[in-house]
UniProtKB/TrEMBL annotation, chains A, B, C, D:
This is L-threonine aldolase. Homotetramer. One of its GO terms (molecular function) is lyase activity. Residues 3-265 form the Aromatic amino acid beta-eliminating lyase/threonine aldolase domain. It holds the Pfam family Beta_elim_lyase.
Length: 334, 334, 334, 334
């Protein structure tokens, strides 16, 4: 009973079927019929003209977005616990050719205009310091919290004021939308977002993420950066196929809801005091003693310790209901 | 009837089956059971202890290999027509942080010790010039020629003498081995090769190539570079699965032989004068007038023009015999 | 009466004389007679065989040292207030090709083994995070504090234990040695330091700093990086001349003592409560109200505000005694 | 009697005097009174509003200019014998973060629209190849030839047509202007040049070159790149002083004329057959047998061999007339 990462989940049947269906001859790279449908598909979803670029990993999507928004002598504002800072082995620095990440604080890996303003106030406007060029947030955050459209818009307004590009790491964007039940547009370009890493792999895909540019002028140069980074797969149709399969009939939302619901059930079983943070997406952070953690593991539940006295449990799209029930019961019984 | 690129081919059934079989929960990234089998599988194949790293593209494999072999202030010797020079949008420069490619000439994109010595002789040994640190050849070459073990060894000896790392871009390594009917070891580490990009995608895979380090000390740092480049896919088991499926029962050789045989039939039909180069792997370069090219296209054959008066035709593992026969007949009838 | 930066000071007469004396034909770049004397001159000073490389700025010296000690996928531990983090516009990131700076805290910009251990403990040993490869401290620190030989050695021991390269930004190394009255060797290689940026410009030079490698194996590749960064001046003899002039007869120590003495007089006049930090080198940090700062400025003293309620005053080698007396009196009279 | 490089020459008296005069307290970096005069001084000289940035080396000037004109995924067209390709240890690749140099041919290191068009025709307009973004020529060339205003304009027109930025490496720009007796504007912005590396060091300076942006929008970001590269010297006033001293009263032209005249006398003595190339600036390339070269060296003349059967002699601003006469006589007597 695995709750340690949605990266470990299986691939959903619609994606597997799409791979089989895409297995015929077609033009290489991104010249195939499926890849060419992506711009339209995402423009429909987001109710605006946007550009969509498939890549194989969220790290590639994030880094390409940041390279489009920040020069080598610039800086990217992000949360101290952001994936781009802690979990990508310096990929943003590699792709941006050495831009600096400026780290802000905030409960549950969430940023606010206030924390960002405070950080920016400490930067001197001279050539001795790299100048902030972009903001990157994660929605849902690395701690399973969700920014609302209003919260994103407040940050978007700040970006316009400070002339910062605005990137959203949406490795779990589907979970955020599912939670908020909002229009994807309201959580992105209508709130001032320029670029979105739209994650599919954690949510039932195999190896395809979408980098969405609402500022479409950024897309063309990104195609060169993508090729140059070795991310233009020669049989790219298999990536486009995965994404299109998940957009079709709202599979992406269905999967995200399943994961969120599982997490909600676990969170409800845990109750207020045991929860480190509210459960808003598909992650649950529990206060547990080492003995309690061991007890859960003895019952077959697999999860990460998350600092002293805390555990992280992540629900996936394919989490079996009986496993969720068992976990909920086990936590309630602690 | 497509003969324009082996990149456009379908995925072979063994790989598709392996994807389905791998579709269960396992550890993320490269911690899964399949990924962990790669070192052993390739060590068996190459009859020596080696390290094997999956990546999604040949460009990534090549660039990671070159970054392991050449510092930013170094240079990489390669052929003027090498894929790393002409078809990767500067990926070697990106991954090596700005190393320079030094371009040598040679018929059919093949290098010899003599052409390399001549090139090296022009480099001053002082800090005003980047110093050669690595040699990269492509086997089979971009023009479908094959280096024999002896030819590779002569280059390997030169590399030792000149203290150059030795990389082989083996996007069509399978085609070379199939042609030579030699042991993979003889074409690589026994001939002095340090790193091999072992291609599977053109040969029936979907999205997995293997970077093989015979100089195993180079592997560890490469894992960081790979992550940093966004190439550590979170569901990496699906890449390992593809590779293992093609190694099993010699699928990689079977596929390559099929492609080579198809090209040989086409080449034989063309005959000596019409051939720009001997057909040694799965590519055929023909001398054709514009009218002849048009005539072939009118009959439904798809291929690339390759400079004035020449055409490139590439046979794939899945080329239908009847298509090959039709093409051979059409060429013979020109 | 300028107390805002030792960078603004004049060039000392010995250096000016050396420039005139060097003004004859000699080999270009660093092949001249003066440049060739540097290794020996510093080896004598440091009582060990070392390599010495002139560069025009401390930023270049620091960055070249860090590039020699840290790979692009590595991290450099430094203080949150370090010059390399705050005042070099990302030069370390540029020269290292995107390494990350890990920021530790400590009073007066000083690091201790404890703060560094705490920082390192937070780094996971896996490919998802850049791994610490080097430590960089500043001696004297950006806040005018001095590390003793014992303090440096404690850090050097930690570096050995953790396999970190050890760099000292010695923009004011002369001030530290003058303060401690110690052997330069005790403050560097005997304490485990691998590379030192030995500053001369703030201390009476015009445009020459020395990068000293105690780990001499690092020097050769650095010469390529230096050229590649555009730092191999064609008339390099004029840089070597400056450095040699300051090493001769202990000019570097004489100048540093003059600056330290001036700062000490100012600090003594200020007294304990007014001092933010002890005065150990040539910088004085005062607690002043806006009115007090204005009063000092009205009397002709030029200095920087340093955050709310604080002022930074820097004494230079050429500070006129009467100006120092006047400032001391003015501060005492506040 | 040294004729091997103008880099080895002495510093002219006006520059030495200016250094002495600048030796007083002033604001650090480029905030001083002298540095602030540069924009105006060069705007007067070039009869248009331009931005002027001091740096310590021609390599830094060239690389900063190229980084302003070419993205990492772009390419720079230059001559196969260009300094930026052969003598800067990959500095353009370092500063541009890995752009590629595309090499064209041409007698005497001169490019023509035709050779460039032929080169550009070979670049496919797709993401698999880096796209040309800039042209860089050297005037006077590395072989002492001079582009006329018309020749530069023809290249400038091509740049506009092909949307290439246009950089001139003017390490010997003074020699070109002195030869042509033209307005500096006619050789630069009026001919379509965007950025000029205006050399002073070879022409009597000590350590200051000027990077001139006629496309003034490029200057601001360059200031960050310059700082980040460690090229913002803290006592920058001494660089500005050198440049201003050489602009004053036409010292730069006087020095260049002296060098050109010396070369012309040598060239005239050599006569047509012995000259590899016409003598248009301050370099002379002679056909000499090894015995003849030895004979010249026996008489005390110092110069470089330049490939088999050729020698390069460079005249400097401070070449003594008697040495020039002696050399001319010695060559005539061969």
């Amino acid at each position: 009973m695995r709750f340690f990462s949605d990266n470990a989940a299986a691939v959903c049947p619609e994606v597997m079927a799409a791979l089989t269906e895409a297995n015929h001859v077609d033009t290489a790279y991104d010249g195939d019929a499926l890849s060419k449908r992506l711009d339209d598909a995402f423009s429909d979803l987001f109710e605006t003209r946007c550009r969509a670029i498939w890549v194989a990993t969220g790290t590639a999507a994030n880094s390409l977005a940041l390279a489009a928004l920040c020069p080598p002598h610039g800086a990217i504002v992000c949360h101290r616990d952001a994936h781009i800072q802690n979990d990508e082995c310096g990929a943003p620095e590699f792709y941006t050719h050495g831009a600096k990440l400026l780290l802000a604080d905030g409960e549950g890996a969430k940023l606010t205009p206030e924390t960002i303003r405070a950080l920016l106030a400490g930067v001197r406007d001279d050539v001795h310091q790299v100048q902030p060029a972009a903001l990157s947030i994660t929605n849902a955050t690395e701690y399973g919290l969700v920014y609302t459209p209003d919260e994103v818009k407040a940050l978007g307004d700040l970006c316009r004021e400070k002339e910062l590009g605005f990137h959203v790491d949406g490795a779990r964007f589907a979970n955020a939308v599912a939670r908020l039940d909002c229009r994807p547009a309201d959580l992105t370009w209508r709130a001032g977002v320029d670029a979105l890493s739209f994650g599919f792999v954690k949510n039932g895909g195999m190896s395809a993420e979408a980098l969405i540019f609402f500022d479409t002028a950024l897309a063309d140069a990104t195609l060169y950066r993508k090729k140059r980074a070795g991310h233009l797969l020669s049989k790219g149709r298999f990536l486009a196929a995965q994404i299109l399969a998940m957009l079709e009939d709202g599979v992406w939302l269905r999967n995200a809801r399943a994961a969120n619901d599982a997490a909600a059930r676990i969170g409800a079983a845990a109750g207020g005091d045991r929860l480190v943070l509210p459960v808003e997406a598909n992650e649950v952070f529990l206060r547990v003693t080492p003995e309690e953690a061991a007890a859960l593991r003895d019952q077959g539940f697999d999860f990460y310790d998350w600092g002293p006295g805390e555990a992280r449990l992540v629900a996936s799209w394919d989490q079996r209901p009986e496993d969720v029930s068992a976990l909920a019961a086990a936590i309630a019984a602690l």
